[in-house]
Every structure is written in C-alpha cells, then in structure tokens.
Amino acid sequence: MGIHTQPARLLPGSLIAALLALGAAGPALGDDDDHNDEYDDYHEHGERHVGRWVEPGEDVRPVSNAAYAEECGACHMAYQPGLLPGAAWQRIMAPDALMDHYGDDASLSDDVRRELAGYLTTHGAELSRKSRARAFGVGDSGSGTLPRITATRYFRNEHHEIPSRMVEGNPDVGSFSNCNACHQGAGDGVYNEHRVRIPGYGRWDD
Amino acid sequence: MNHTHPDVPIGLRSAGLHCACLLMAAAWSTAVHAGDPAAGARAWVREYPQPGGVPARSCVTCHTADLAQPGRHAKTGKSIEPMAPSVNPERLTDPAKVAKWLGRNCRWTLGRACTAAEKADFLAYIETQ
Questions:
Q1: How far apart are CA B69 and CA B71, in angstroms?
Q2: N or C: which end of chain A has fewer CB within 10 A?
Q3: Which residue is closest to B62 within chain A, CA to CA?
Q4: Are the beta carbons of A174 and B90 separated by less than 8 Å?
Q5: A9/B contact by beta carbon, under 8 A
Q6: Is residue B49 within 8 angstroms of chain A, CB to CB?
C-alpha cells in the first residue's frame, strides 16, 4: 500500500493525523502529478534516484486518501483512482451501484460515499499526467452494467497473452481484478512488466 | 454502565468503549437484546441456499468456522484478519464499522437485513471467541 492506516478506526482525530502524516511524507508518496512533471518520462522505466529521494517509479499515483484506502481496500486492493476515468468512477459510486457492486454489497453512508466519489473523480485517469494512467482513460471500460479496469482497452491489450490457467485456473490469482496477486508493486501504483510474478509461474518474460 | 445503556449489545459493552455507547445507540437504536452466544454460534454456520447454481452462503464462507483463523473473501480471495477478539483485539471496537459490516454481510449472506436480535446474537458469539 502507498499508505498505512490504522485498520479499525475512522475516528476524526486519527483521520486528521493520517492526513497530516501523508502531507509530511510529500514526494516519497509520489504526489508528483502536481509538480516535477519533467520526471514523468523517467517513471516509465522503473526506479530512479531523483535528488535525495528514491522515486518509486509508479505508473499511477498511489492512493493518498486514508478513508478511501480503508473503505475500498477491505475486499480487494484499493484500486488507484488513475486506473479509470472520472465518469466511470461516478457510475461505480452511485448509491444503487454500491449496493450491487459486482455481486457484492459495498454500500456506504452518504457522506463517506460523497467524499470518496470526490476523491476518485478529481484523480481520474484522464486528469493524470502519467501516460500509463492516461491510457486507462481511453475508450470504453466494458459493456457490463458497471465499468471495469479489466475491461478497458489498454488493460485488455496488455494482458491478452496471459493464458487463463494462470489466472482463473490459478487458486492464488482467481481473476484479473486481483492486480496485486501478480504485480508486486501494485499497492504503490507500480505496474511495469519487470515487477510481475505470477504465483506458481514466477517472473513474466516475453 | 450496563444499566445506563440497556440497548447496547453485550459484545460492545464489554469492549469498554464509553463514547462508543453513544454512537452505538444511534446506529442501533432498535438493538434491545443482550445476545445469546449459542444462538449466534448456530447462526454463524447456517447455510442459505442461492438460486442459479451459486454455492450456499454463510458467515463461514468468508470468515471460516474457527474465528481464531484468518478468513478469505469468497469472491476476491483477499485474506481477512481473524474475527476472534482473543487473537485480534481490534475486533468489535468500532461501532460504526461493526454496524456497516453487519449490514452488508447480512444482506449478502441471508439476502435480507438481520434483525436486532440476530445482530446481538452474532456479536455475543464473536465476543466469546
């Protein structure tokens, strides 16, 4: 994960503390969408040292909202907002959609729902300066009732060579939605092919 | 404390969170039962058949029958920390979290909201683990 929150608590005090901690960590958390744009190309190629900081080489901006990390990270990894365009997040975050969330119940109180929807739509793929994140915003995100990251054109292009025995037929993966089963840096927004290990099959070399 | 907050299920009362009681009362104003651990234990493993070849569902589907063990989300495979407060002291300490998950998990498992009595039984059972 890009950030570590106290798992069981969302009390205002600790939330504020978590947000302050995030602010203090600054560049290490990679909120570089707002500045040092010139390094963006370097991010395409794994880890880099920039000044005193180790740049994480993320492809999408890591999660930077404690409430989002907790609420949307309970049943699967907390997907980074840059993995879908804002309009898709808007549909996912509608009250009815959360009640029937890909066959599960992810309903939220209205104020939390609004906060998280705001976070997602203001950090959507189309607003990112990172080219991989931007790619997730191109074209549709699937014809199902709800948009999916795994149904975007970019995602399908990058994964179509992977046989289903390594995914659906693999008890340690289960489905493509499980990014972090294969992408070791998924929690930090790192998706480059050099950090892929498919459980039971090892490194991916194509 | 017990007599001043008769509508707070036993599990949360014994967690000893004073401010929690207020939140609790707001979230579950209908919870009037003390909770029966044995009934909660039976309800925990009760299976609810699903239409269309979907496997039957119970609390065990994600949390396992041994609450001291970690569970696994039936659909996503993500591991779930043990439910038993004896091995995971953070359990049942945040009333809003408990209310939220009982709401979701009852709807998903039973296909309907749990009654206040059912919720109290579940919590009474978990608390003994």
A1: 6
A2: C
A3: A75
A4: no
A5: yes
A6: no
The CATH T-level fold of domain B35-127 is: Cytochrome Bc1 Complex; Chain D, domain 2 (1.10.760)
Alpha helices by DSSP H, listed for chain A, are 12-25, 40-43, 66-71, 86-92, 95-99, 110-121, 131-136, 153-159, 179-182
Of the listed ranges A83-87, A141-145, B59-63, B100-104, the least confidently predicted one is: A141-145
Residues in A touching B76 (Cβ below 8 Å)? 75-76, 174-175, 177-178
Under DSSP, is residue A53 helix (H, G, I), strand (E, B) or coil? strand
Q: Say which of B76, B81, B104 has its CB closest to residue A76.
A: B76
Whether residues B108 and A9 touch (CB distance < 8 A) is answered with no
Looking at chain A, how many residues does it have?
Answer: 206
Classify A175 as helix, strand or coil.
coil
Element (H, E) at B72: strand B71-72
Q: Is B94 on the interface with A (CB under 8 A)?
A: yes
A73 vs B51: CA distance, rounded Å: 29
Do A177 and B108 make contact, defined as CB atoms within 8 angstroms?
A: no
Using a CB-CB cut-off of 8 Å, the residues of chain B touching A8 are: 90-91, 93-94, 97
Q: Which of B76, B81, B108 has the CB atom closest to A178's CB atom?
A: B76
**Residue A196 bridge partners (DSSP):** A183
Q: Tell me the one-letter amino acid at B82.
A: P
Q: What is the pTM of this model?
A: 0.80
ipTM of the complex: 0.70
Rounded to whole angstroms, the Cα distance separating B31 from B21 reads 12
% of chain A exceeding 70 in pLDDT: 69
Q: Where are the domains of chain B?
A: 35-127
What is the amino acid identity at position B64?
T
